């Protein structure tokens, strides 16, 4: 699939069943290919809206036209349905020439309990949880939520959304359109936070310093403009990122087994972690290729029998100039927590030890591990790494606390907790990442994103409020200026820059940001692409492209959802004048991306290290792994 543009596919009313409907002035209607009638001919479509209106008046039809809705019908809209998926015959068709919508507060979300519509009202009182539900005629009944992927088009007085299909509603005046958007946002806020949408409650949710997140029009967006200037001054600006750049597949090859995770190296090799072992592949400027050494988990060389412990490793962390790898296996299938990990010596292909997590003589669990910094895996003497659990953030040391290397031939060694904090209250940490200098960003179940400096893990320097969705993965640029959070239905891009009282520009890792905080930007799929991705497929593992040097700038963002690998142009997302942001309400959302569609669900999508970018490309190759195959793509400036 190619790029999806911010305006989306525009609607045409002309179809066989309702050819008498007026054709809307949507630019892409010429792209629809109408089916021919049985006679092989089709009535000529009028070229303008004025011609349509003239013909309709001449027919003296007894029902009102869509431009003159029934004045007694409250919240009147015209309803469209998208059919045909992403096939050549895909198009919008008119579902209801004239219908109405309503927001209803009810516990009966599905409406399958036999209740009559008349028994519900906007003030309905129900026992237990109640939610705002949007009804459109008798065809749509859906809980108001981010899962609807609602996308607004102010210039067209139109909204698109997902509700067991892809729908669009067109309003008959600007006032009606704005009224709907306002009411939808109020219902969304109340469904998300279980409190009425008003200024006082928004301050409770976001805090007074982040009120710009609730009212983006009042936020300071100058930081985004400054960031664009800084981007243009970064190295590699001789090869700027352009909107017309294409992804070109260099090669694809089968893997030895079911790939579970991808560990990209910045040196000679990368690694595919599978069900039964690790496949070593070579790094090239056009991607990863070649079946090298295969390290089998049950080759008899491991000390503690990796294949007998828990399950297939779900996390692989390279260390010590990429000669060692830490493998983390969940203790219970379906849950990320584990009480230890295995250390693999890549050069010998042997598991050299099984480590245990312990503090004060007690075994504890971790849910994630990370390198000390963005480039720490290249340090040949590295012996420490970071750990995260629901209420813990710490640094582990593989050396003895007295400076003596532990004897791995004895009983299972315990990692040394050298720094960190165990929080008494539920922080519900989910994921974390590090900057080039070792600052830490942590995402939480409540959607909050916390920034910790390199000097303290006890108290966050900055805590960004949540937007109501759990953060399942987080990444940060090498310089710490940008954070990318993953939720099930959208990505959130946050700028950490601020100006302190002395006029100095800092990041939220190094100081408290105060009230001059820029509103975040959201990266979303269009309702159609979201629907095509599948109802159970969610965004996973959004990441920046990979740099490990000061002064270099990440240039793309990539995320996985089902069989889609979705790529955004970082500079384009930051550009406040970009077409995506025109006529938008609320937080700015970017819908301009490229999609790589694979035949199987994607395990991971990641850009190789910046050193593998060639002179005629603005970016290193993109590697996409499915359970049975791995593919490499280059970004070309040629069409």
From TrEMBL:
<dbReference type="InterPro" id="IPR040458">
    <property type="entry name" value="Vid27"/>
</dbReference>
<dbReference type="InterPro" id="IPR015943">
    <property type="entry name" value="WD40/YVTN_repeat-like_dom_sf"/>
</dbReference>
<feature type="region of interest" description="Disordered">
    <location>
        <begin position="1"/>
        <end position="51"/>
    </location>
</feature>
<feature type="compositionally biased region" description="Acidic residues">
    <location>
        <begin position="12"/>
        <end position="26"/>
    </location>
</feature>
<feature type="compositionally biased region" description="Basic and acidic residues">
    <location>
        <begin position="1"/>
        <end position="10"/>
    </location>
</feature>
<feature type="domain" description="Vacuolar import/degradation Vid27 C-terminal">
    <location>
        <begin position="267"/>
        <end position="582"/>
    </location>
</feature>
<dbReference type="Pfam" id="PF08553">
    <property type="entry name" value="VID27"/>
</dbReference>
<feature type="domain" description="DUF7135">
    <location>
        <begin position="38"/>
        <end position="207"/>
    </location>
</feature>
<dbReference type="InterPro" id="IPR013863">
    <property type="entry name" value="VID27_C"/>
</dbReference>
<dbReference type="GO" id="GO:0005634">
    <property type="term" value="C:nucleus"/>
</dbReference>
<protein>
    <recommendedName>
        <fullName>Vacuolar import/degradation Vid27 C-terminal domain-containing protein</fullName>
    </recommendedName>
</protein>
<dbReference type="Pfam" id="PF23581">
    <property type="entry name" value="DUF7135"/>
</dbReference>
<dbReference type="GO" id="GO:0005737">
    <property type="term" value="C:cytoplasm"/>
</dbReference>
<dbReference type="InterPro" id="IPR055559">
    <property type="entry name" value="CYPRO4_DUF7135"/>
</dbReference>
């Amino acid at each position: 699939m190619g790029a999806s543009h911010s305006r989306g596919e525009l609607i045409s009313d002309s179809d066989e069943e309702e050819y008498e409907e007026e054709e809307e002035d949507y630019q892409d209607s010429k792209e629809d290919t109408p089916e021919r009638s049985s006679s092989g001919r089709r009535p000529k479509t009028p070229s303008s809206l004025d011609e349509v209106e003239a013909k309709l008046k001449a027919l003296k039809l007894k029902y009102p036209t869509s431009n003159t809705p029934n004045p007694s019908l409250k919240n009147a809209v015209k309803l469209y349905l998208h059919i045909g998926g992403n096939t050549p015959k895909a198009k919008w068709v008119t579902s209801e020439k004239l219908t109405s919508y309503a927001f209803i507060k009810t516990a009966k979300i599905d409406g399958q309990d036999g209740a009559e519509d008349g028994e519900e009202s906007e003030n309905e009182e129900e026992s237990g949880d109640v939610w705002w539900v949007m009804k459109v005629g008798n065809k749509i009944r859906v809980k108001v939520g981010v899962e609807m992927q609602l996308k607004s088009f102010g210039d067209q007085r139109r909204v698109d959304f997902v509700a067991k299909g892809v729908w669009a509603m067109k309003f008959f005046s600007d006032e009606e359109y704005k009224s709907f958007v306002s009411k939808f946002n109020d219902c969304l806020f109340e469904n998300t936070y279980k409190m009425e949408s008003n200024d006082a409650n928004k301050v409770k949710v976001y805090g007074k310093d982040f009120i710009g997140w609730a009212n983006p029009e009042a936020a300071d967006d100058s930081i985004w403009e400054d960031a664009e200037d800084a981007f243009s001054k970064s190295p590699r600006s001789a090869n700027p990122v352009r909107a017309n750049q294409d992804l070109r597949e260099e090669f694809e090859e089968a893997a030895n087994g079911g790939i579970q995770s991808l560990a990209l190296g910045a040196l000679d090799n990368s690694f595919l972690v599978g069900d039964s072992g690790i496949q070593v592949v070579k790094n090239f400027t056009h991607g990863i290729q070649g079946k090298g050494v295969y390290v089998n988990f049950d080759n008899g060389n491991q000390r503690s029998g990796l294949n007998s412990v828990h399950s297939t490793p779900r996390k692989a962390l390279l260390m010590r100039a990429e000669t060692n790898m830490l493998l983390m296996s969940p203790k219970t299938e379906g849950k990320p927590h584990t009480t230890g990990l295995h250390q693999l010596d890549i050069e010998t292909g042997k598991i050299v030890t099984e480590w245990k997590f312990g503090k004060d003589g007690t075994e504890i669990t971790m849910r994630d591990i990370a390198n000390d910094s963005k480039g720490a895996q290249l340090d040949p003497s590295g012996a420490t790494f970071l750990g995260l659990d629901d209420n813990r953030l710490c640094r582990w040391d593989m050396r003895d606390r007295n400076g003596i290397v532990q004897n791995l031939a004895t009983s299972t060694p315990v990692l040394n907790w050298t720094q960190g904090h165990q929080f008494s209250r539920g922080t519900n940490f989910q994921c974390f990442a590090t900057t080039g200098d070792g600052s830490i960003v942590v995402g939480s179940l409540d959607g909050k994103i916390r920034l910790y400096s390199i000097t303290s893990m006890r108290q966050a320097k900055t805590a960004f409020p949540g937007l109501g969705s759990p953060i399942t993965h987080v990444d940060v640029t090498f310089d710490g200026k940008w954070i990318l959070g993953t939720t099930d239905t959208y990505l959130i891009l946050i700028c950490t820059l601020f100006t302190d009282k002395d006029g100095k520009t800092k990041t939220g890792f190094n100081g408290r940001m105060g009230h001059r905080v820029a509103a975040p930007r959201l990266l979303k799929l269009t309702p159609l692409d979201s629907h095509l991705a599948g109802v159970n497929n969610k965004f996973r593992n959004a990441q920046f492209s990979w740099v490990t040097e000061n002064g270099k700038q990440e240039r793309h963002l990539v995320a996985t959802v089902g069989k889609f690998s979705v790529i955004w142009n970082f500079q384009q997302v930051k550009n406040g004048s970009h077409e995506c942001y025109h006529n938008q309400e609320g937080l700015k959302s970017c819908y301009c991306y490229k999609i790589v569609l694979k035949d199987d669900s994607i395990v991971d999508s990641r850009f190789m290290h910046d050193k593998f970018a060639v002179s005629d490309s603005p970016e290193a190759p993109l590697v996409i792994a499915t359970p049975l195959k791995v593919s490499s793509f280059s970004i070309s400036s040629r069409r």
